[in-house]
């Protein structure tokens, strides 16, 4: 008997057939060769049954019928693709072995598993696990297939994800919809993503802009001219800064210090899907869905890139020879000149910026294949170009600079100058014909400090130097009027970044890598989540900006108001995603996970049942324009320290503070860290210390143990070490009665205390 190969989509099936059965006969819905019959699903052929297929009473939505928690989930065929399911069933009767050739990932595993379960297929299964659809890779994949049983944990994780989403979505949506008489969609991933957008919107609305002034000094030493920014507290009094300008203008100056150091900038990391979506949104204006669809076409239809739905920016040792073949394949193309300039010796297994097997799980970074691209649409060509250039940059040396830092003193006032002198363009030659990218931020750099430094730093291609021993003249002093800026509205690109790290504002790339296992959704599903929020009317697009609708705003407020803050918690949902990944690795129990999800679904219903109904008008109203926050007038005197200004909130507590009428942060308590002496104030996501710049790491996250902490509760934690008794939800989803306790006064780490 023959072996039945089940691919995920028709194109994939045909590619597989051309590689392993080139003489296979095309039977329209399958291809038959001497040893293999190759057929395909068309996406999901099998779905979880709707509630009314468990009981007729569920046809009518009623909160009295909730929660709906099936003991065993029923499977039903998708009516639109039922004919293809029948084809698979008939073909399976003629075969004694199966090959799961669906996408190599959690969702592909689920698609095959559902077909297998619904049709009751008992044949032994082999798993094809490949990262591109070139004939060579397919043949290698068939030669090294593993038993399907080795992927049983991945199947459990996929099933748990599907059933958990059904339980939360079905019960949450029906509960809120029937209570408030408006169709309200609730989901395990979509709701915390909506909450991220809501919190950013509130942060922007609460922002009050502060006018301030900067002083730019112009200096001359011989034939050299340069500019420097005055160093001191941020000034809000125009008269004082103008007096300072008059004081230094035309006066002799001296160089107080001059430092020169060599620095290198290495190529950016290879693309994973989320990074590709983010950059394509920024550079090309593509939505996350458009980038995914275009990348999928480059992979399936044109076979010019590797599997795009990856969460890794690295490759394994086995991929290094493939990278060299792909480089050779780019000869004779539009990239010929860049290929000639490439240094093959830079791409090897010991280059950990490229080859890091520990950071590759299912799939390596997105790479071009050794197939020459032709017949691409304009959009496909643009995305392919991004992938190829990022790939080529790995074969080039770092860009090299000399960093000159000059402190010039005039009339006892100091001005700082930073000049970045280009020595070698290195990998940046690949982007020399494109619009210059903004420099990436350094690890852990404060956003306001970063903005200031970008303004102060000047990049030059010609040699620069000053003589520390020679005199300098301050030829001019220019007063610049500026405003502190509110946080920016999310774009799809910046929202994807927030989803990847479960909402935490993480700039450090290593920390972001560590968060990848506990982000919101997966690289393959994030685009669909954003599209879902648009479809249900929670967000609108205003150009590239994401605008929250009145319906979206009210939905978040109702969910939080019902006492199920966990549903809106990015961190908690990130922990669920981590648990699913642990199930896939065999490190956690799917039964325990589902037990906790069922309890949480019942908790949602109980909370909503006692909630007051919202007014119909709460969901109505025009979506406001995605504009900036309120403008505030400059204060008439004094200075505002850069360290504590309204635009320089602690990183961990985010940047929008609860403020008093005069714009100053509301101080809640003295920081409990021994020897600190700072003050705690509320940011958008937590309570941080005013001495964070001096190294205080104390922060209490607002969303903790299923609750959104109040100012009073935070004061109790700081002053008494614990809250009053509360209803809490542990990280694994278990609801408990207990107190939140301050475990570590040095960091703000919290724990729980139960009776």
Question: How would you summarize what this structure contains?
Answer:
With about 750 residues, the protein is of the alpha+beta class. The protein contains 20 helices and 31 strands.
Characterization of the model:
The chain is an alpha+beta fold and 755 residues long. Helices cover 34% and strands 21% of the residues. It contains 20 helices and 31 strands. The strands form 9 sheets. A 7-stranded mixed β-sheet has the order 2-3-4-1-7-8-9, sandwiched between helices. Strand 27 (703-704) and strand 28 form a beta hairpin. Helix 1 crosses helix 4 (135-143) and helix 5 packs antiparallel against helix 18. The protein is globular, with a radius of gyration of 29 Å.
Keywords:
21% strand, 31 strands, magnesium, seven-stranded mixed β-sheet, 34% helix, 755 residues, alpha+beta, six-stranded antiparallel beta barrel, metal-binding, single chain, globular, EC 5.6.2.1
Shape: globular
Strand content: 15-25%
**Termini, distance in Å?**
64 Å
Give the proportion of residues in helices: 25-40%
Largest sheet features: 7 strands, mixed
Main β-sheet, spatial strand arrangement: 2-3-4-1-7-8-9
Q: Any idea what the radius of gyration is?
A: 29 Å
Structural class: alpha+beta
User: Could you name the ranges where pLDDT drops below 50 across 5 or more consecutive residues?
Assistant: 437-454, 631-665
Tell me the number of strands: 31
DSSP helical segment count: 20
Mean pLDDT: 87
Biased composition (Basic and acidic residues): 436-450
Region (Disordered): 436-462, 619-666
Catalytic activity: ATP-independent breakage of single-stranded DNA, followed by passage and rejoining
Biased composition (Acidic residues): 451-460
């Amino acid at each position: 008997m023959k072996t039945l190969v089940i691919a995920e989509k028709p194109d994939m099936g045909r590619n597989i057939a051309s590689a392993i059965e080139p003489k296979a006969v095309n039977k329209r819905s399958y291809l038959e060769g001497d040893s293999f019959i190759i057929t395909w699903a068309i996406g999901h052929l099998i779905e979880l049954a709707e509630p009314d297929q468990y009981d007729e009473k569920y046809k009518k939505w009623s909160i009295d019928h909730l929660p709906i928690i099936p003991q065993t989930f029923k499977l039903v065929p998708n009516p639109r693709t039922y004919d293809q399911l029948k084809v698979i069933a008939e073909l399976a009767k003629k075969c004694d072995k199966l090959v799961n050739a669906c996408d190599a990932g959690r969702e592909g595993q689920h698609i095959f598993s559902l077909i297998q379960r619904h049709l009751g297929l008992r044949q032994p299964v082999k798993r094809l696990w490949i990262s591109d659809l070139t004939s060579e890779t397919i043949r290698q994949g068939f030669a090294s297939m593993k038993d399907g049983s080795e992927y049983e944990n991945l199947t459990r994780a996929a099933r748990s994800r599907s059933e958990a989403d059904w339980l939360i979505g079905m019960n949450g949506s029906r509960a809120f919809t029937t209570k408030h008489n408006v169709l309200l969609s609730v989901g395990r991933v979509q709701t915390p993503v909506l909450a991220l957008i809501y919190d950013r919107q509130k942060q922007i609305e609460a922002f009050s802009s502060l006018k301030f002034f900067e002083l730019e000094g112009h200096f001359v030493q011989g034939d050299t001219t340069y500019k420097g920014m005055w160093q001191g507290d941020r000034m809000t009094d125009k008269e004082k800064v103008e007096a300072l300008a008059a004081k230094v203008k035309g006066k002799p100056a001296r160089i107080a210090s001059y430092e020169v150091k060599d620095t290198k900038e290495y190529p950016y990391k290879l693309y994973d899907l989320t990074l590709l979506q983010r950059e394509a949104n920024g550079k090309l204006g593509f939505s996350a869905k458009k980038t995914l669809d275009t990348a999928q076409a480059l992979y399936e239809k044109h076979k010019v890139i590797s599997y795009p739905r990856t969460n890794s920016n690295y490759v394994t040792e086995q991929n290094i020879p493939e990278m060299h073949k792909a480089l050779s394949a780019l000869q004779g193309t539009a990239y010929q000149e860049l290929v000639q300039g490439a240094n093959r010796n830079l791409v090897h297994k010991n280059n950990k910026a490229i080859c890091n097997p520990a950071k590759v799980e299912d799939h390596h970074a997105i790479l071009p294949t050794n197939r020459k691209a032709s017949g691409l649409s304009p959009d496909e060509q643009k995305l392919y170009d991004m992938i190829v250039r990022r790939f080529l940059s790995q074969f080039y040396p770092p860009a090299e600079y000399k960093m000159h830092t000059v402190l010039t003193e005039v009339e006892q006032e100091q001005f700082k100058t930073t000049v970045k002198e280009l020595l070698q363009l290195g990998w940046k030659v690949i982007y020399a014909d494109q619009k210059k990218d903004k420099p990436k931020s350094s690890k852990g750099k404060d956003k306001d400090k970063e903005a200031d430094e970008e303004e102060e730093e000047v990049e030059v291609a010609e040699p620069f130097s000053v003589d520390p021993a020679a005199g300098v003249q301050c030829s001019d002093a220019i007063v610049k009027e500026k405003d502190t800026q509110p946080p920016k509205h999310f774009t799809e690109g910046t929202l994807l970044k927030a989803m990847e790290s479960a909402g935490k504002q993480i700039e450090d790339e290593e920390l972001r890598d560590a968060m990848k296992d506990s982000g919101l959704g997966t690289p393959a599903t994030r685009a669909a989540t954003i599209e879902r929020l648009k479809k249900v009317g929670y967000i609108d697009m205003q150009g590239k900006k994401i605008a929250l609708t009145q319906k979206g705003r009210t939905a978040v407020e109702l969910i939080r108001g019902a006492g199920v803050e966990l549903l809106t918690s990015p961190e908690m949902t990130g922990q669920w995603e981590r648990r699913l990944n642990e199930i896939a690795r065999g490190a956690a129990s799917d039964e325990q996970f589902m037990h906790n999800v069922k309890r949480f679904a019942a908790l949602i219903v109980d909370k909503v049942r006692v909630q007051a109904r919202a007014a119909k008008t709460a969901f109505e109203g025009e979506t406001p324009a995605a504009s900036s926050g309120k403008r505030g007038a400059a204060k008439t005197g004094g200075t505002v320290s850069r360290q504590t200004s309204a635009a320089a909130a602690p990183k961990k507590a985010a940047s929008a503070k609860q403020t008093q009428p005069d714009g100053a942060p509301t101080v809640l308590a003295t920081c409990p860290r021994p020897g600190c002496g700072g003050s705690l104030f509320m940011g958008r996501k937590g309570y941080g210390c005013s001495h964070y710049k001096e190294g205080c790491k104390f922060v209490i996250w607002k969303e903790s143990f299923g609750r959104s902490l109040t100012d009073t509760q935070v004061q109790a934690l700081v002053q008494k070490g614990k809250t009053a008794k509360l209803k809490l939800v542990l990280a694994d989803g278990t609801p408990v009665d207990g107190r939140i306790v301050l475990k570590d006064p040095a960091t703000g780490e919290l724990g729980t205390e139960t009776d």
